[in-house]
Structures are given as C-alpha cells and as structure tokens.
Design the sequence.
C-alpha cells in the first residue's frame, strides 16, 4: 500500500467514525511515515542494502 | 531537617536517631497541604499510611534494625505505579474507581528498604505527553513559576521533590518523562539502562520504550534509589577524577536546535568541565535525525495495542487530545512498525559506537526552558516547532536505544529557570554512568548540593 493510498483510506475511515479532528493528525503521521520509509537504512526486496549493493 | 536535604545527608541522621521518620513525614505532609492546592503535584495523598509506615520505621530503628539509606525516608510515586489498596489513576477518568490489587515490584522493593510513601503524583494522562497539562486532575504547575509547565510526563513527581513534599520521587520515562521534568525543575533524574528496573505493576505507555527511575536531588541519591528500586544492596563505588574523564558531545541533530539561553548555559558548563580537566570531544550519530520518526512509530503502535479496547469502550473517558492521538496511533501499519524496529537497531549501534572511547556522552537534557502552560509551539532559530517535539528532541533517542541517561542541573536562564545537562552511558552500565555523574556533579557543584544554589 502506498502512503497516498493509506492516507486516503485513513481519512475516509476517520470521517466514517465521525472524528474529523483526526484528519490533521493523520496527515502529520503520513509526513512522518514518509520520512521513515525514506530513511537510508531501509532495505527492500529489490535492493538489499541502502548503498545499492 | 531542611526540606532540601539529600537522602545521603538524611540517612545517617535517621540511623543515629537524630531525626525521626515521623517528623520528616509530617513535615512533608504539611508542605503538601500548604503547596499542593497551588501546584497540583499530587492526585492522592496517603497521609495515614505514610505516618504509620514512618512510625514503624522509627520503631524498627529504635529496636536496632536499620534497613539502609531509604529507611524512613518519605518518597512520592508517579500515579502510574501500583500500590496495593490505593488507586492508580494514570491521571485519567478511564481509571475511575480503580484500586490496585498488589504492589508494583518497585514498590515492594522500596517498602522492603523501609521507604515511606506519601502519595501518588500528577502526570500527563497515561504519560502520553511532555507538559503535564492534559490530566483529568488538572495541570501541574512549575514550582518557580506557576504559569509554566513543570515538564512531563512525571511533572507532579518533579514538583514534589523540588518543593520538599518528598525527598525523591519514582517516575517513568518513555521518551524523556523523568529527564524532562527533572531538567525543567532543577533536579537530578535517572533513566536506567533498559531492563535494569522491573516495570511489572507500572501502567505502560510503550512496553519496549518504558523505563522506571528516580527524580531526586543528587547523583548519589539516584544511586541509592536505583538500588532501592532493584532491591539490591548498595556498594561503595569510586568516583573518577574529573581530569580522567572523556565526554563525547554529539554534534548535529542533538545540538543544532537549542533555545539560546539553554545553549549559553550548556556552553558555560562545557567551559567549566574543560577547566577541571575533562576532555570533551565531538562525536557523531549519523542517523540521529531519524530519531523522531522511529520513536513515533514505536510509541504509537505500542500505545494503540494497550489502549485499543478502552478506546472502543469508553472513548469519552480520555482527555480529548489524548483520545485523538491514541486514535491516530491505531492507523500505524505493521510494516511501518517493523521499519521503526529496524531503525532502532541502526540507532542503537550508532550510539554504541559514539560512546566507544568515551566515558559518556554529554548534551543538554531539554532544548528549551520550562514552557508556558498553553503554549503549543516554540520559536527555535528561524522556525516554530511543536512544544512536544522540542521537549522530546534530546531524550527520546536513548529510550529507543536503551542506553542509561542521567540529567544533572547545570545552570539557569537569566530569568532563573533551570537548565539540565544530560550524560548518556554505555548500555547495561548504569552504575558506571552514575560514577561519571558524581564526578561531573562535584565539578559543577563543588560546595555540595543546594536547591537554593540552583
């Protein structure tokens, strides 16, 4: 799930739960999660090490 | 006996019968009665039980039994810590009607050491904040300026020690909640190494980040209290000479956004340590800038696991902003929690490497002085920063990595608000950190401890 998909779904869910004040917090969490996923120490299945080795 | 005495000063006088525990306890209770209405440090005062414990301590001593340096000493507890028969409110209406069934492990150890427990202190609801403002029992107020926050989440604990309502307090620290209020109120605060102190019977915020430790008036008292919390016997330990110490200053993320008054006080502290022969050297923690996001995803996921069922059952029982932040926590994905755990490994290795070759790291404990109640942002450099982020910035890394960390008063702003320095030691070497702390404290406060001097 991309962050954009996750945020869209979370915002819809917050509205469904009648928690509109949650929207700003979820947008802030999305910014933090974007930074987490961009951290250079992350690895993924295509690129096993941050330096590309 | 002076309300500002340290436990180390007090203990020999109790042992010699020069001062009774009952007198000390009644003096603390009198100070609570006089000052608590204005400062809101305590949620529950256990006066009758405290006097009974003090009388028993006096009886035992008179009969020749002396349990150690906490014998007969009045202490307070953050109201997350279970005491059998007493409510643990967590500063939340979620806990209305709660009565703890048994003592937390640390309380059992403190009772066995002869300590007297005067009451349970106010905190940020469920320890989920740094200012102590969001409490079902109202905000706690800074002892030097009641328009300001004492820091949090163990704010009531810090007030109780700073004002002589207790001789020390037991708090918890998930992102800095012992060190932040200790620094803001001019106290010594210790977050022991992860796993050093058993947290069974202490309401969690985040199981893998939570630490239990003391807020107190000297590094020696912190060592006494650490033994008390662990149920271990104090051992005499040497204090290294300041001139033999090497302290590493982590440049970059942890030093580049400080309030100017904090930066000045910390700079003067470094000058005094250098003058005493301490070697200060720059060190780097390459990914320290990732601390905030790693911390956030761990604390949110773990807090959501603890609070999820209660959020569904009684959401209105939480303070409104705490409820919203806990609801936000429920949206963290498992894959992002796992990424944060990976980041935790990276940061732990980097802090290990930074400390290697040093006796400890040295940095400020709190990037800003105690903030005004109600403030949501603070100006740092050219931009505004949320108060919570600014207050957690220098402490939360060491909850992620588990390194022991100690804050020591190191000066004050021009308006008299305390500033704290932070020492960080090698993992699982809390006692070694305390030895370094004693040496630094003796260098910064050569005439001995005095709250008035701060």
Sequence:
């Amino acid at each position: 799930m991309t962050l954009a998909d996750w945020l869209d779904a979370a915002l819809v869910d917050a509205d469904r739960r009648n928690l509109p004040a949650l929207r700003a917090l979820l947008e802030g969490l999305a910014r933090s999660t974007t930074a987490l996923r961009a951290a250079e120490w992350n690895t993924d299945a295509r690129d096993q090490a941050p330096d590309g080795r | 006996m002076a309300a500002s005495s340290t436990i180390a000063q007090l203990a020999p006088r109790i042992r010699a019968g020069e001062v009774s525990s009952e007198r000390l306890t009644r003096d603390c209770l009198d100070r609570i009665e006089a000052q608590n209405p204005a400062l809101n440090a305590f949620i529950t005062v256990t006066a009758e039980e405290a006097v009974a414990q003090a009388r028993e301590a006096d009886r035992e001593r008179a009969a020749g039994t002396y349990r150690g340096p906490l014998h007969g000493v009045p202490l307070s507890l953050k109201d997350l810590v279970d005491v059998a028969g007493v409510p643990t409110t967590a500063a939340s209406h979620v806990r209305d009607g709660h009565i703890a069934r048994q003592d937390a492990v640390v309380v059992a150890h403190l009772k066995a050491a002869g300590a007297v427990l005067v009451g349970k202190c106010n905190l940020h609801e469920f320890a989920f904040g740094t200012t102590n403002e969001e409490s079902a029992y109202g905000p706690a107020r800074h002892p030097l300026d009641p328009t300001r926050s004492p820091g949090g989440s163990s704010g009531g604990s810090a007030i109780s020690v700073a004002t002589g309502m207790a001789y020390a307090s037991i708090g918890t620290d998930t992102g800095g909640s012992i060190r932040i209020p200790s620094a803001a109120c001019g106290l010594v605060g210790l977050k022991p190494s992860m796993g050093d102190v058993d947290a069974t019977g202490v309401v969690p915020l985040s199981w893998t980040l939570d630490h239990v430790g003391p807020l107190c008036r000297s590094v020696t008292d912190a060592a006494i209290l650490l033994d008390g919390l662990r149920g271990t016997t104090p051992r005499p330990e040497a204090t290294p000479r300041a001139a033999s110490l090497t302290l590493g200053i982590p440049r970059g993320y942890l030093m580049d956004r400080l309030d100017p008054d904090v930066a000045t006080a910390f700079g003067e502290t470094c000058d005094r340590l250098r003058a005493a022969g301490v070697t200060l050297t720059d060190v780097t923690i390459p990914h320290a800038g990732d601390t905030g996001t790693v911390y956030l995803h761990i604390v949110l996921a773990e807090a959501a696991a603890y609070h999820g069922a209660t959020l569904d059952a009684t959401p209105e029982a939480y303070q409104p902003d705490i409820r919203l932040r806990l609801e936000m926590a429920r949206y963290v994905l498992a894959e992002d929690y796992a990424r944060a755990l990976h980041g935790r490994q990276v940061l732990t290795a980097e802090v290990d490497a930074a400390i290697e070759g040093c006796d400890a790291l040295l940095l400020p404990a709190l990037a800003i002085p105690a903030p005004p109640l109600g403030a949501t942002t603070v100006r740092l450099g050219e931009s505004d920063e949320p108060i919570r982020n600014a207050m957690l910035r220098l402490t939360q890394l060491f909850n992620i990595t588990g390194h022991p960390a100690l804050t020591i008063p190191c000066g004050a702003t021009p308006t008299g608000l305390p500033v704290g320095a932070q020492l960080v030691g090698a993992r699982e070497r809390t006692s070694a950190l305390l030895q370094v702390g004693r040496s630094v404290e003796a260098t910064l406060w050569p005439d001995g401890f005095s709250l008035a001097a701060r």
